[in-house]
Amino acid sequence: MFNDQGAKALLNSRAFVRSTATALALLIAAGSAMAETTIKWMHLEIDPTYIGVWKQIVKNYEAERPGTKIEMQFLENEAFKAKLPTLLQSSDAPDLFYSWGGGVLKQQLATGALLDLSEAMNAKDGAWLKTYNPASVKGLTYDGKIGAVPYSVGTVSFFYNKALFAKAGVDATTIKTWDDYLAAVKKIKDAGIVPIAGGGGEKWPIHFYWSYLVMRNGGQKVFDAAKNGEGEGFNDPAMIKAGEQLAELGKLEPFQPGYLGATWPQTLGVFGDGKAAMILGFQNTEANQRTNSGDKKGLSADNIGRFAFPAVTGGAGAVTDTLGGLNGWAVTKKAPPETLDFLAYLTNAENERTMAKAGMIIPVAVGAEDGVTDPLVHQAAQQLAGSTWHQNFFDQDLGPSVGRVVNDVSVAIVSGQMTPADGAQQIQDAFEQDQF
Question: Which N-terminal stretch is annotated as signal sequence (predicted)?
Fold first, then answer.
């Protein structure tokens, strides 16, 4: 039996043990909380189905990597472009974000805002590097530095409403040249149908027309010379002719009323609601028009056709030259090391195949090609496979300053507010100013 003093000692010892155990539990909990890493992933995807695919990939990753949390952050396209430069210089910078590559990515890499991925991707005899199509890595490499992890490749082409084409008596298979295209636009308009859904509010959707016309008229030689400051630059006759052809399209008033204020989602909605016969858009246009349509169903897949941007008679470019993105995920310099592990996981062959099957991407991961099953996306993949020159979007390739002018000029020319010659000179002036 204990005396009073022994009993008190025992009680005190038990209290000490309990308090110590509680303290240890709190320390362990605090340690676990401190050990958890949050990776901030900024994207601009709007399709809920696609986001659902990503969320499942994230769920799988977090289950396999306890202590790592992926926080998905969304910004609308134009807000993304406007806010990202400021975000990259702030404490709110994302750890990884979507990139179109080109001059914008090159500039971000040069400023030191991004992590050079060369060392990580070349480690262990380039084990990570070898998981991607070599051309995709090369396209995101600048001055020997890899600026982004390859994600997807894509091309811009025309999508059309088969029912509206039939109503207007237009056969899409006969549209081979720019003159054929203009004739089709006239015929569709004469039938009382809006020929094209246009997104002039964000401007870049209109620059697709000018870019493709430059490519068809001048070919790679003319464009490469211009962006390298050689020859007549953006005042090359082929550039001016491209503007003249764009102006000719504009005079037909081919777009829906109010197109100069239309955002890209609204433009997709116009096409998806059957209010325009055509749209010049990305490889995933079929899915995106559905998402942005009034009833969220849009046009049925079997009512949508696709054709390449037509050739220009006498032009130096080929109809097999393609315009589109080589997209990747850039990593900011202060991102936690786990970011690279997540990116390798996100873009591995298995996950890229899953995304391809969902119609999200044309994959760049080796072995994921068989995931492309959607008919329209498959057509885009086939077109890319036969591409004789794949050019990144002009507004991305030329960098933010010149790219912005290209977009502005494209809208100004098609709307009749600027002459093609003045437009070419403005781009040349912006290019020369950007060199200082």
Answer: 1-35
Among positive and negative, which fits the CA dihedral 221, 227, 233, 234?
positive
Mean predicted lDDT score pLDDT of the chain: 91
The tens digit of pLDDT for each residue in 211-224 reads 999 999 999 999 99
373 contacts: CB under 8 Å, gap ≥ 6: 356, 357
- For the domain covering 37-153+325-388, report its CATH number: 3.40.190.10
The answer, yes or no, to whether residue 162 has pLDDT greater than 60, is: yes
Identical fold at 37-153+325-388 and 157-323+393-434? Answer: yes
Domain boundaries, the chain: 37-153+325-388, 157-323+393-434
User: What's the length of the chain?
Assistant: 436
Q: Give the per-residue pLDDT at 34.
A: 46
The listed CATH number (3.10.410.10, 3.90.1570.10, 3.40.190.10, 3.30.420.10) that belongs to domain 157-323+393-434: 3.40.190.10
Other C-beta atoms closer than 10 Å to the C-beta of 185 total 21
> In degrees to the nearest 10, what's the CA dihedral of 297, 299, 305, 306?
-60
Phi, psi of 123 (to 5 degrees): -65, 155
Q: How would you class 27 by CB atoms within 10 Å of its CB: exposed for 0-12, middle for 13-18, buried for 19 or more?
A: exposed
**Encoded tokens for 312:** 């220009």
The number of angstroms, rounded, from the C-alpha of 164 to the middle of its chain's C-alpha atoms is 29
